[in-house]
Amino acid sequence: MPTITCIDDLKRLYRRRVPKMFYDYAESGSYTEKTFRENTSDFDEIKFRQKIAVDMSNRSTSSHMLTQKAAMPVALAPVGLTGMQHADGEIKAALAARDFGVPYTLSTMSVNSIEQVADATNTPFWFQVYTLNDDDFMRRLMARAKDANCSAIVITLDLQVLGQRHKDIKNGLSTPPKPTLKTILDLSTKWRWGLGMLGAKSRTFGNIAGQVEGVSDPTNLAVWTNEKFDQALDWDRVKELRNMWDGPVILKGIMDPEDAKQAVNAGADAIIVSNHGGRQLDGALSSIRALEPIVEAVGNKVDVYMDSGIRTGQDILKALALGAKGTFIGRSYIYGLGALGQPGVTKALDILQKELDVSMALCGRTSIDQISRDMLMMPNDFSTRWS
């Protein structure tokens, strides 16, 4: 086993152990992947202001996201097909998040169902829903989430149409994988993954299979889902969806200050600055560039979170210094899951927390509530270069 000191170490191991189509599914963006790349590279333009002779004892990374106490201001983001990265992937990720003390968000397009995750974890988690145009399905889905004791809903707003990801098409992405010669040859080298899948609780979309009349096999599930994305979505529809749930609602996919204001008016309890990890509109700004103007636009009306591009604890610290109240990680924990299962997710969280803790201390801060923008040195036009 190689020595693992950073998220990139987990990524290298992940690439060796997971079938190519599922590695590519996670590690890709739409079209030219420009936004996918800049989500991470734009963090490099932000520098820290180091402070010395500051009492660094009694440090803490603890915080709150919504009303939930968190060991650090990080939640596991909703990631579709997590159960194809590792057998029972959603369950293992949720257990790791529970034990570490951070929120976990289950995707509608998960392999393990809401009920399977709830039975395995016995603790509240968050549930992500898409803006589908089937009200009956949406109401039943949210009722299932309520029965499973989900404590918040995350509504994804940036998937009315699906951005094309070339690798998924070329790989013939499906769950479970189709038995083509190319796939069989790849799977033959991923025996650890395959053995785990033999005992998996589910190998298709657990939240949809058996819940929609006339839809049973994986191909029909994919077609049904694509047809149900609500291309007529507007802010009135967002309010309708918000009113289907009587608990906290987080609106995900905000990249514009005016949209952030509309999200507040629609009844959001929190918003996530997110470009879907660069998987939707290629050529959009990175999330870290979009963050500060959105924070300024909404003030203290709602909590602003951020995802897309976070690979280090220093990235988390930079987002917090620019006004985010919390962050979401996707690929960073998926690398750990695919590499080592539940212990890999824990390892990813531990790496990020330690990087956050040390970097915070060297900037002269000992708690999350002390983090502020004056910790940073950055280009004057970082958020206004393209106006």
Topology:
Blueprint: H1 7-17, H2 20-26, H3 34-41, E1 47-48, E2 63-65, E3 68-70, E4 74-76, H4 82-85, H5 89-100, E5 105-106, H6 114-121, E6 126-130, H7 135-147, E7 152-156, H8 166-171, H9 181-187, H10 191-198, H11 218-228, H12 235-243, E8 249-254, H13 257-265, E9 270-273, H14 287-298, E10 303-306, H15 313-321, E11 326-329, H16 331-340, H17 342-362, E12 376-377
Parallel strand pairs: 4-11, 5-6, 6-7, 7-8, 8-9, 9-10, 10-11
Antiparallel strand pairs: 1-12, 2-3
Helix pairs in contact: 1-16, 5-6, 5-17, 13-14, 15-17, 16-17
Any overview of this molecule?
It contains 17 helices and twelve strands. It has one domain (7-377): Aldolase class I (TIM Barrel). Helix 13 links the parallel strand 8 (249-254) and strand 9 (270-273). 48% of the residues are buried. Helix content is 43%, strand content 11%. The chain starts with 6 loop residues before the first helix and ends in a 10-residue tail after the last strand. The protein has 387 residues and is α/β, with parallel strands linked by helices. It has helices at 7-17, 20-26, 34-41, 82-85, 89-100, 114-121, 135-147, 166-171, 181-187, 191-198, 218-228, 235-243, 257-265, 287-298, 313-321, 331-340, 342-362; strands at residues 47-48, 63-65, 68-70, 74-76, 105-106, 126-130, 152-156, 249-254, 270-273, 303-306, 326-329, 376-377. An eight-stranded parallel beta sheet has the order 4-11-10-9-8-7-6-5. A two-stranded antiparallel ribbon has the order 1-12. A two-stranded antiparallel sheet has the order 2-3.
